[in-house]
Specification:
Elements: E1 2-14, E2 21-23, E3 45-46, E4 49-50, H1 51-59, E5 64-67, E6 91-93, E7 99-101, H2 107-117, E8 120-125, H3 132-143, H4 149-156, E9 167-170, H5 183-195, E10 216-219, H6 227-238, E11 251-258, H7 274-301, E12 308-316, H8 335-350, E13 355-361, E14 371-374, E15 377-380, H9 382-390, E16 397-403, E17 407-408, E18 416-417, E19 419-425, E20 431-437, E21 444-450, E22 454-463, E23 481-482, E24 486-488, E25 492-497, E26 501-509
Parallel strand pairs: 1-21, 2-5, 2-13, 5-8, 8-9, 9-10, 10-11, 11-12, 12-13
Antiparallel strand pairs: 1-16, 3-4, 6-7, 14-15, 16-19, 17-18, 19-20, 20-26, 21-25, 22-23, 22-26, 24-25
Helix pairs in contact: 3-4, 5-6, 6-7, 7-8, 8-9
């Protein structure tokens, strides 16, 4: 029997709700068809946003949405996406599928989507092929309140009041698709560009708006284990930065995808054996090492953890579904994806003192999506149900926990612990325990010892055979189910986590 020890008296860090954030890029059928169908579509919509998708996403409390990319961001010129739609410039989306982009979803449509979702905004600017002036004027267009050329243009396009930009990314993957830069070159460009990402709230007559910066700036961080990039960017940004807090940045990004068979031949999303199952989960667990090692470098420059680590692209990346456009990155989603999500979110919770935002890629129809659409049909993936389950941790207080594990697997290189966990006290005052069982075949009996008396417990679970998934023909195969096989005792709880499962217990403490 495995021991799970929970110390509710030792509160460690706040789990920022933005850890449960999402990413939407002009890629494949994410924006077009997946989210935006236009006002004249026969699919039910509000101002062009499909109602079924918006309602499903509101249910999991999407806290923040990153847009417009991704690699697309460093070729995106925002003025192409404003004004009358019939007059907007059409371009070729050279990164993703070589298809025509008509820019019918632009700045106004993005903020309308975030309004409907009730989420924070995270706009990624173009450093790779754009100019300082272009970036500066986009920020002015979005946020300036008063009389200015860009505010006037925004009003002429139908929106007099400014929007709120919560996060602004200065470039994306500038070590690769965003310009193939060196860390030192990018960091100097970052310093220059971010200077002109003006915080116009500081001009406000309302003193309440001066309390803290309105726009939090995100610097492009490393790809996977490129520790040289992290160090090089931080060294350059912190050099001669007196008077500018924490190297001119509020966040440093990290990108990491799980592709079990490698970058070139990633492996099927649905056709895999037990060896590949464990290899995939082993690679998901690698996120912990990446956060620790990049975090250790960040600690040298920022020991007080003022700079957030922002994992703004993560998730599974498999070979596209047969018969689909390779550039659209459309993949199915199984119980294996549910385990990757549960494992990774537990890791983020455990590192919430440094990781304060993450954005799974992507929200609809691309990579490890929450939702898949086909015409007017929509299905929720197993990953969606994990985000539904884990929303209890949003803005909760992480507490100390430890679980007894054993090593399992079929190949020495890809052995994994059989269990992972994280525990928090939510805003509702209840204790929330999330546990993953990585074993394909073996259930785990768990004895949870809690340092307080338990008055009641309820549970929910996502589980199934490792290949199970939802399809348009069978949309309810994988669902969030009630889990009531929990025994309360004097020390806490006893329960059995089935194989291939992610479960959540809500505990009321006496």
């Amino acid at each position: 029997m495995a021991k799970l020890l929970i110390n509710t008296e030792r509160k460690l860090s706040k789990i920022s709700k933005e850890i449960y954030g999402h990413f939407s890029e002009h890629l494949g059928r994410c924006i077009y068809e997946g989210i935006y169908v236009g006002e004249d579509s026969p699919i039910e919509n509000v101002n062009g946003m499909r109602t079924d998708v918006v309602e499903a996403l509101k249910a999991i409390k999407v806290p923040v949405l990153r847009w417009p990319g991704g690699c697309f961001a460093d070729e995106y010129h925002w003025e192409d996406g404003i004004g009358p739609k019939e007059e907007r410039k059409t371009i070729i989306n050279t990164h993703w599928g070589g298809v025509v982009e008509d820019n019918s979803f632009g700045t106004h449509e993005y903020f309308e989507l975030c309004r409907q979702l009730g989420c924070k905004t995270y706009v990624n600017g173009n450093l790779g092929s754009g100019t300082v002036r272009e970036m500066s004027e986009w920020v002015e267009y979005m946020t300036f309140k008063g009389v200015s050329p860009m505010a006037k243009l925004r009003a002429e396009n139908g929106h007099e009041e400014p929007w709120k930009v919560d996060y602004f990314g200065v470039g994306n993957e500038n070590w690769g698709c965003g310009g193939n830069m060196t860390p030192e070159y990018y960091a100097n460009e970052y310093r220059r560009y971010q200077t002109y990402v003006r915080d116009y709230s500081q001009h406000s007559m309302d003193p309440q708006e001066h309390i803290k910066p309105s726009i939090l700036k995100v610097c492009c961080g490393p790809n996977v284990d490129d520790y040289e990039w992290t160090r090089g960017v931080l060294e350059t940004c912190f050099r001669h930065s007196e008077g500018s807090p924490h190297g001119f940045m509020d966040g440093l990004s990290l990108h990491y995808y799980v592709h079990p068979e490698g970058w070139v031949k990633k492996g099927s999303a649905t056709d895999f054996d037990e060896k590949v199952w464990y290899k995939t989960l082993s690679k998901a667990l690698y996120m912990d090492e990446l956060i620790r090692r990049h975090g250790a470098i960040m600690d040298e420059f920022d020991p007080n953890k003022e700079i957030a680590m922002i994992v703004d692209e993560w998730g599974t990346w498999f070979t596209v579904e047969p018969g689909t456009n390779p550039g659209f990155l459309y993949q199915q989603n199984t119980i294996r994806d549910a385990l990757v999500a549960g494992i990774t979110l537990n890791i983020f919770n455990k590192h919430s003192d440094r990781v304060r935002m993450a954005n799974i890629a992507q929200i609809v129809n691309v990579l490890q999506a929450m939702l898949l659409t086909e015409g007017d049909k929509m299905i929720k993936t197993p990953t969606y149900h994990i985000f539904d389950m884990y929303k209890c941790h949003q803005d909760a207080q992480l507490v100390e926990s430890w679980i007894d594990t054993k090593t399992i697997g079929l190949e020495e290189e890809y052995m994994v612990p059989n269990l992972t966990e994280s525990v928090s006290i939510g805003e509702d005052g209840k204790l929330h325990i999330t546990v993953t069982n990585l074993s394909v075949e073996e259930a785990s009996e768990i004895d949870a010892v809690i340092d307080c008396r338990v008055s009641s417990v309820t549970g929910e679970i996502v589980t199934g055979e490792m290949h199970e998934m939802n399809t348009f023909e069978d949309p309810g195969r994988v669902q969030l189910q009630k889990f009531d096989a929990v025994e309360m005792n004097e020390k806490g709880l006893r329960f059995v986590a089935p194989p291939c499962s992610v479960l959540h217990l809500t505990v009321e403490m006496a």
